[in-house]
Specification:
This is PilZ domain-containing protein. 12% of the residues lie in helices and 48% in strands. With 103 residues, it is mainly β. A hairpin with a 6-residue loop joins strand 5 and strand 6 (79-86).
């Protein structure tokens, strides 16, 4: 898989994941996405609901992604997870990416 454009979620964010086992896996997948480090491997092609928030603020932004890549990081107990936005529109993607870049 050749990655397109992935925005890294900084460690200052709290990432909550919920795997959606019964979600339709044949919906629109975006060329844009996110990457983050996680202590557990996430099965490809899992559909995830992500709740993203800054540790220092209340509220979160929620969105769906499809996991496309999960690689173990050498000499660390972490996995680098690459996910593309899933079943969403460009406005929501822009909102999420601006939220990440604003901090």
């Amino acid at each position: 898989m050749k990655p397109n454009h992935y925005t890294e979620i900084p460690a200052t964010f709290e990432v909550q994941l919920e795997q959606l086992n019964d979600y339709d896996s044949k919906k629109h997948i975006s060329a844009r996405g996110i990457k983050f480090f996680h202590p557990y491997d996430i099965e490809v092609p899992s559909i995830l609901k992500i709740s993203l928030k800054m540790i220092s603020m209340t509220g979160s932004i929620d969105f769906l992604v499809k996991t496309l890549k999960s690689d173990r990081v050498d000499k660390e107990d972490l996995y680098e997870i690459h996910c593309n936005f899933y079943d969403t529109n460009a406005e929501k993607e822009d909102e999420v990416l601006e939220f990440i870049k604003s901090f």
